[in-house]
Amino acid sequence: MRALLVTNPAATTTTAKVREVLVRALSTDLKVDVAETTHRGHARELGRQAAVDGVDVVVTLGGDGTVNETVDGLLADGPGAQVPTLAVVPGGSTNVFSRALGRSRDPVEATAEILDSLRAGRTRRVSLGTASALVDAGTDIAWGPGWTPPRWFVFAAGLGFDAEVIRQVEEQRARGRRSSGRLYVHAGTRTFLLGHDRRHPSMTLRVPGEPAREGLFLCLVSNVNPWTYLGDRAIAPSPEAGFENGLAAFAMGRLGPIAMLRHLRTTMAERPDVRGRGVHRLHDLAELEITSTRPLEWQLDGDHLGPATGLRVRSVPAALEVVV
Fold it and tell me: What does pTM read for this prediction?
């Protein structure tokens, strides 16, 4: 069985020693080629080439961004039997997709689990999502103004608050700061208290066949539950989300700091169930659209992708075979 290991040396917890251990372990059962990413978008190129070359299994070692790019490459020509199976070894700071698949947080243990599953033939097809953003002529995007080509995501998409937090964290990481829960908390608090979205919400959420939901400052789109983690604590605004379902959306309108803290605590509870005035929860969605009256940041799977004034999101059932 041919395998490609896509490793991101810049990921938070990925080291050369871990990579060497993984290669030795994988080589006991697989014919392994190793490719190390060198620039943004490289994992996408590697994933697409792996599909063209007929590789059987693609294993990622990196964070959620590495997984996202690899999947976007694997599915460049759409789902199908020719697409390699994906296996995910956690190597980032949060590893949402890996944890959603039930993988151990330790990369060596996760590799052993993957090998056991491959021997036993334990795989499943999971639903994913695609997203297109509406960018304007002033945005430095290669494809120019208008709706961008659909891009795959595995666990989350967002426009506005969450993407702005991610943008700030990425700026801090570029200055040498290590990704951590504290960094996200600081960025989230700053964005909520000092940003304009909470006081002057600009977003509208539209779902086919339903009235538009206007005046939103936050809209999180989830493909899995939980939406993300803060250290060991799951943050679950959409507990109905899952690989067998359509997409879930969690949106909020104008609210104050006390209400925001109360809702945040509820998303981290053992049985999360956020409700209240201005809270919108939808699930099992085939598609949705978010628009904004002014440019906001957008993100997929925790990667900041720039400013946009709209996001079109669709669910794609049984899109990719993964090792479980």
Answer: 0.91
